[in-house]
Specification:
This is ABM domain-containing protein. By secondary structure, this protein is of the alpha+beta class. The chain has helices at 26-40, 70-76, 80-83, 86-90, 132-145, 175-189, and strands at 2-4, 12-20, 46-54, 57-67, 101-107, 119-126, 153-158, 165-172, 196-205. It has a single domain (2-205), classed as Alpha-Beta Plaits, CATH 3.30.70.100. The chain has 6 helices and 9 strands.
């Protein structure tokens, strides 16, 4: 796990999900989502939610949710409050789509919330555990060569769902910076990854 620039915060659990939208009209999608956010914003364990769509695919939604901690969310998921929003989320998601992905990152020492950026990059890298130390060194070296003005933040952590999936979550000041830095980081780490999925999204804070 690593943060660029170095972070010194209370930490958080970051949930990143990408899913194909259901066939309901976009206006209805947004209305249902607003209703969900009104509920979620009252949860003590929820800090922030940001929603957007993948660049080049408006039907593929991207959600970044900040929770207080993994322990807090684990204790919360079986409550009546949490279960009250599940049916609503079910209206938004095409569960038959193979591109569905959701990963939780445990981030002790990170900022309390995901910083706001003009563009976000999300990479899922399949890195065998024995190669992860060398992967981390290669990525760290590449990041220190990158112009610090070309990114707002970079967060690197293993997925809670699969220890061999490394998630690189980056905030960029522009789409141009995202493309340039993304190529540099992919080139530096491709030796260690069996497969890599990268996408970009503009996301707006919902609360």
């Amino acid at each position: 796990m690593a943060f660029y620039p170095t972070a010194d915060g209370p930490g958080r659990l970051l949930e990143i999900c990408s899913f194909r939208k259901s066939d309901i009209p976009e206006s209805q999608f947004r209305e249902v989502f607003r209703g969900i956010m009104q509920k979620v914003s009252t949860f003590d364990v929820a800090r922030q939610n940001s929603l957007g769509t993948r660049e080049g695919d408006e039907r593929q939604a991207v959600l970044a949710a900040d929770w207080t901690s993994s322990e807090d969310k684990d204790a919360f998921i079986n409550t009546e409050q949490f279960n009250s929003v599940k049916p609503l989320f079910g209206q938004l998601i095409n569960t038959e789509d193979a591109k569905w992905a959701c990963h939780h990152l445990i981030l002790p020492g990170a900022s309390a919330k995901t910083p706001q950026s003009a563009m976000y990059g999300i990479s899922y890298l399949d890195v065998p555990v024995p190669l992860q130390a060398n992967f981390a060194k290669a990525l760290d070296k590449a990041i220190h060569v990158v112009d610090k003005g070309s990114y707002d933040f970079i967060t690197v952590a293993a997925s809670r769902e699969d220890a061999e999936v490394i998630v690189v979550f980056t905030g960029f000041p522009s789409a141009g910076a995202a493309e340039k830095v993304g190529i540099q980081l992919d080139e530096a780490t491709k030796t260690f990854s069996k497969s890599t999925t990268t996408y970009y999204a503009k996301m707006e804070k919902q609360y």
